[in-house]
């Protein structure tokens, strides 16, 4: 159609008139497509061959459902090996995620001969953390160990000693330090938005029922689970509270057991505990931890002398929430998707290992928390008598 001809109604409805008019207008304006230089400093992922290689030790529901998928969003880390006692499962996952190196628990120490593996993530039950962390460190690898760090403070101390002897990084997978809502809460507290923290209330728990969810079974076994709900779920409340109070120090701990003693699930481990930690400043952290709550509970509240921050849920994988009350109208604060915490966690550890810099959640933090938990159980065994830290 000539450019000076008015398009018909049919041409307009069918779009036949639009293309030549658009092309003509573009040419008239001197518009051409050409490449442009990369502007700014975009946060691009490292090339795959430059990323830190990881071995995942333990392919249970958490490892398969949360840890492994996180590497798809990682920018500095990649999967290099799987370690499992189930060869069929490990091989299947290796094919699914293009991971060529498969080990079992008998030949695990052979990772020392694989330069493609720099970091090891221990995703085994608590009772196995110390053994495999120490073996990985002796194999010359950096280690990120799932929380809680181990079954006892003595095991934590042995793990730290092994890391120092190997001159390798040892971290504890406190993912909340990398979770957007909690990072935002930490930022606001540090900025003084709620004033000085005077009290923290935290409640965490779920119904540990192996009949409904078989993976709960190991949590109820002392040898594998370590010690009960405070090890598994209550530790979130303790660690996250201390995260928000970095300049304060715990000085005493007390607790009482609160669970049905005749419940056969709790023949080996405690099923619930109410606890309190007193800080050097005089502030208190009080919490509850339980394998008897339904539905799943994850709640933190920080009370300051100006305002308060409530998080409910507070430490979940997906949908943590942040609300501020006081010093103005009630405010709901939006944050980034919580699922990013797993990718951020492995990338943070990769960067620390690569550059030899301090990690955000080191083994010493895990030892501190285990010492507090040991004191809580000591207090509960004595009917709630406070124990000095």
Automatic annotation (TrEMBL):
The keyword Oxidoreductase applies. It comes from the Bacteria. Keywords: Oxidoreductase. The keyword Transmembrane helix does not apply. InterPro entries: Gfo/Idh/MocA-like_OxRdtase_N, Gfo/Idh/MocA_domain, GFO_IDH_MocA-like_dom, Glc-Fru_OxRdtase_bac, NAD(P)-bd_dom_sf, TAT_signal. Residues 184-310 form the GFO/IDH/MocA-like oxidoreductase domain. Residues 54-174 form the Gfo/Idh/MocA-like oxidoreductase N-terminal domain. Transmembrane segments: none annotated. Belongs to the Gfo/Idh/MocA family. This is Gfo/Idh/MocA family protein.
């Amino acid at each position: 159609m000539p450019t000076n001809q008015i398009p018909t109604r049919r041409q307009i409805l069918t779009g036949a008139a639009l293309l030549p008019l658009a092309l003509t207008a573009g040419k008239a304006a001197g518009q051409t497509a050409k490449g442009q230089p990369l502007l700014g400093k975009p946060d691009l992922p490292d090339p795959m061959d430059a990323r830190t290689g990881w071995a995942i030790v333990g392919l249970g529901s958490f490892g398969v459902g949360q840890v492994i998928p996180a590497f798809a969003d990682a920018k500095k880390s990649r999967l290099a090996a799987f370690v499992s006692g189930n060869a069929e499962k490990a091989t299947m996952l290796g094919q699914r995620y293009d991971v060529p190196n498969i080990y079992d628990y008998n030949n695990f120490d052979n990772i020392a001969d694989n330069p493609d593996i720099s970091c090891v993530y221990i995703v085994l039950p608590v009772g196995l953390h110390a053994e495999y962390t120490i073996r990985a460190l002796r194999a010359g690898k950096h280690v990120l160990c799932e929380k809680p760090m181990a079954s006892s403070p003595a095991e934590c101390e042995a793990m730290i000693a092994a890391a120092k002897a190997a001159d390798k990084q040892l971290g504890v997978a406190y993912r909340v330090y990398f979770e957007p809502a909690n990072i935002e809460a930490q930022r606001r507290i540090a900025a003084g938005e709620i004033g000085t923290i005077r009290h923290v209330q935290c409640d965490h728990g779920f119904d540990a029922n192996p009949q409904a969810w078989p993976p709960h079974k190991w949590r109820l076994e002392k040898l594998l689970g370590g010690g009960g709900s405070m090890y598994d779920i209550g530790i979130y409340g303790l660690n996250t509270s201390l995260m928000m109070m970095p300049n304060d120090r715990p000085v005493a701990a007390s607790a009482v057991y609160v669970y049905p003693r005749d419940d056969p699930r709790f023949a080996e481990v405690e099923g619930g505990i109410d606890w309190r930690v007193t800080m050097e400043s005089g502030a208190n952290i009080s919490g509850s931890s339980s394998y008897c709550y339904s539905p799943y509970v994850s709640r933190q509240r920080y009370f300051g002398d100006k305002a308060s921050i409530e998080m409910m849920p507070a430490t979940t994988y997906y949908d943590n929430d942040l609300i501020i009350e006081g010093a103005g109208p009630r405010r709901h604060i939006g944050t980034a998707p919580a699922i990013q915490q797993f990718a951020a966690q492995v990338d943070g550890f990769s960067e620390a290992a690569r550059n030899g810099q301090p990690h955000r959640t080191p083994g010493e933090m895990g030892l501190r928390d285990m010492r507090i938990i040991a004191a809580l159980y000591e207090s509960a065994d004595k009917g709630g008598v406070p124990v000095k830290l």
